[in-house]
Specification:
Layout (H helix, E strand, L loop, with lengths): L8 H33 L2 H37 L3 H36 L4 H16 L1 H16 L4 H24 L4 H26 L14 H33 L3 H17 L1 H19 L3 H34 L8 H14 L3 H16 L4 H25 L1 H5 L1 H39 L1
């Protein structure tokens, strides 16, 4: 466990971020390994099938992450306030709410799957493979939800190392299961989805065993399972907007993907590969965002607003430097990474993917600021502004993907994400400064009243 309410903010955040960074890279490798194995062992059409299913897959994953992260924000705040009973009650409340969320999300995805594929313009030749992939994922979404929830509990205590170890195990298992189901059992694209679910299942079991033995502070007592509706609403007040925010991000990606689908399997495969490369490259910025959520939540629970200001400022400056370094690295080596997904003889696919990367790297700074300010707001329990920011991103990305694609073709799609990043960063940065100023004034007013009473 790591109490982040004392000590140098930047040192604490970096120390917390390093395991997160390694873990996030492994999480991306977890996803990327599916693409590599499918693209290399089955072919371009199979890769395209996974690509068209990716927005729906990521919708389930992102909404799960948003919902569970929102729940564990309260857990981190209770830990920062040294409220052990509130911490245990947060664990039970989050567990019950996550179970209800899982059943709802799975049912909705299975019921609307054909409709969603229809409006996404999924080509007929890859339709069945994409449907098989998403059906298996939807049935196994409970494992995705609870893996993120259990990892969130550990991060709420300031422990970012243990979730890393489980992510590494999950990644290795995912690769092993994928090779087993695709190469040996010849299950095709469905084998990739089955491998993901099996890997997550094993990791959830490991997480439960670890928490049972090593984290007694998280062990609920019998009376902690008695749900309090006001406490549930306190969790949902953060979790639901965060889930909506992540669902909006996923919907905007689905819109971009649906427009991309009209350009054929080669463009779909190229865009899928480029997005995976970008997701891997931006993990350092993502990491600082996740670290800020825990750091801010603990300090907010302890009422240390000055430490929040300092930590956010220092991380924002680091994110600026990172955006420049990562952009330079992707310009130089991005094409080499793309060839991991597709063989060198697919020159057209590689060229299409390179075009997207060379445009998006110019806007990494805005993406980095989104991660810092959005997670800081969420750590303070202010989830509405990030949700509004995501809605702005949706509108801008949809406009760019649809309107610009009509005028400029694939080049228009390449500008969809950068335009959305600029708009989204403007909203969350303004929102953060507005919220932190109001909270600072509130604490100052309380301190003045307490002083006046003392006199």
């Amino acid at each position: 466990m790591q109490d982040m309410t004392s000590g140098k903010p930047l040192k604490l955040i970096i120390k917390f971020s390093i395991p997160l960074l390694v873990g996030n890279i492994f999480q991306q490798l977890y996803s990327i390994s599916d693409i590599i194995i499918v693209g290399r062992l089955i072919g371009i059409k199979a890769l395209a099938a996974v690509g068209v299913a990716a927005p729906l897959f990521f919708m389930l994953v992102l909404v799960s992450i948003g919902f569970t992260n929102g729940l564990t924000v309260i857990t981190a705040q209770r830990f920062g306030a040294h409220d052990n009973r509130g911490l245990r009650r947060s664990v039970t409340t989050a567990t019950v709410l996550s179970s209800a969320f899982t059943l709802t999300a799975s049912a909705i995805m299975l019921f609307f799957l054909d409709f969603l594929f229809k409006i996404m313009n999924v080509p007929e030749e890859i339709y069945q493979d994409a449907k098989n992939f998403m059906t298996i994922i939807s049935c196994g979404v409970i494992m995705i939800v609870f893996f993120n929830l259990l990892s969130g509990f550990m991060r709420a205590l300031g422990d970012s190392k243990t979730p890393l170890y489980f992510l590494i195990v999950t990644t290795i298992l995912n690769i092993a299961f994928n090779i087993l189901f695709i190469y040996h059992f010849h299950l095709g694209v469905a084998g990739s989805a089955l491998g993901t679910v099996c890997a997550m299942t094993v990791s959830v079991i490991f997480c439960l065993i670890y928490i049972g033995k090593k984290c007694p502070i998280l062990h609920p007592r019998k009376e902690d399972w008695k749900l309090n509706w006001e406490f549930c609403k306190q969790h949902l007040k953060v979790a639901v907007p965060m889930a909506i925010q992540f669902s909006i991000i996923a919907v905007s990606s689905a819109i971009t993907q649906s427009v991309c689908n009209s350009f054929g399997p080669d463009t779909i495969a190229a865009f899928t590969s480029a997005m995976r490369v970008e997701q891997l490259a931006t993990q350092p910025m993502v990491t600082f965002g996740v670290a800020m959520a825990t750091y801010v939540a603990q300090n907010f629970g302890a009422g240390m607003i000055g430490r929040i200001r300092r930590g956010v400022f220092e991380c924002s400056m680091i994110s600026l430097v990172l955006s420049i370094v990562l952009a330079a690295a992707m310009y130089r080596y991005g094409t080499d990474v793309i060839t991991i997904f597709v063989s060198d003889d697919h020159h057209n696919v590689i060229d299409i993917a390179r075009t997207y990367l060379h445009i998006s790297i110019l806007f990494y700074f805005f993406l980095g600021q989104i991660f810092i300010f959005r997670n800081s707001l969420q750590g303070m329990g202010r989830a509405v502004i990030p949700m509004v920011s995501s809605f702005i991103e949706l509108l801008l990305r949809a406009f760019a993907a649809v309107y610009l694609a009509v005028k400029f073709g694939y080049l228009g799609i390449c500008y969809a994400s950068p335009i959305a990043w600029v708009g989204g960063s403007a909203v969350v940065s303004f929102g953060y400064f507005w919220v932190i100023r109001r909270i600072g004034c509130h604490y100052l007013y309380k301190r003045q009243r307490i002083t006046a009473r003392g006199r």
